[in-house]
């Protein structure tokens, strides 16, 4: 396949039923939920997701990367398992209080190639929405283990109010939980290793308590007291009708927010890396050199743009269009 045949990729999302989930993935983001169960996660860009458009329809992202690693990722030796995962989370109840291992502990405890550092962009939140992020008072593994056994875990956890447009970086080892009434975008390392320490004394969808992983969790946890959860930022002018800001540049990924006023346009050249674009407001036309027709995308859509594909975004309609643009760390 020649590079002239590259094009922006859409995917069939991987939808996940969760005891704490709801229906906003459908009602707010336009996902077609196949059953009446509570859906909590939509994995938007994931190496096992199938391509939903164009000549490569039906292949997984991983299969296409194996065929064209350099053109898609900018790396001649890229693995099929793309190292980043983009998802939406609809939390209609508290997620478990949990922690994720870093790379070294994921390898030591699970034999997995990577841990899970992540970040969140709050798409929408109820007026009283909170997250848990780190600890409210000094503690250590033994003290927190005893607090959990005595039903006092909440006394040690830091509760942080959040609202739409907040940005939170969650390094591996951070004790955390997403609270009721939050719809968010998550960018993370490709890993699903989660160690729960507390699940709000509820039953899972099967009527049984969900398993906890206390000892592994405590081995991974960084016992930071009152760490700063929300990272302030300000959109900066980039061109007429276009504003942007880099939200994070971490060891694993970068994330930018871009806002385009109606009919404003922004052009992207070759970056040497794939760009993972998610629409968080409004509608846009994505135009690339190899496509005869622009790709029209709107709130809730996610697109994988190959590394060697220049493209542009143009806001459509009367509403300012906003996107999050993720990429691997340089």
TrEMBL record:
This is Mannose-6-phosphate isomerase. Keywords: Isomerase, Metal-binding, Zinc. The keyword Iron does not apply. It comes from the Bacteria. Binds 1 zinc ion per subunit. GO terms for molecular function: mannose-6-phosphate isomerase activity; zinc ion binding. Zn(2+) binds at residues 100, 118, 176. Residues 12-110 form the Phosphomannose isomerase type I catalytic domain. Its cofactor is Zn(2+). PANTHER family: FRUCTOKINASE, TRANSCRIPTIONAL REPRESSOR MPRA. GO terms for biological process: carbohydrate metabolic process. Pfam families: PMI_typeI_cat. The keyword Translocase does not apply. The active site is at 196.
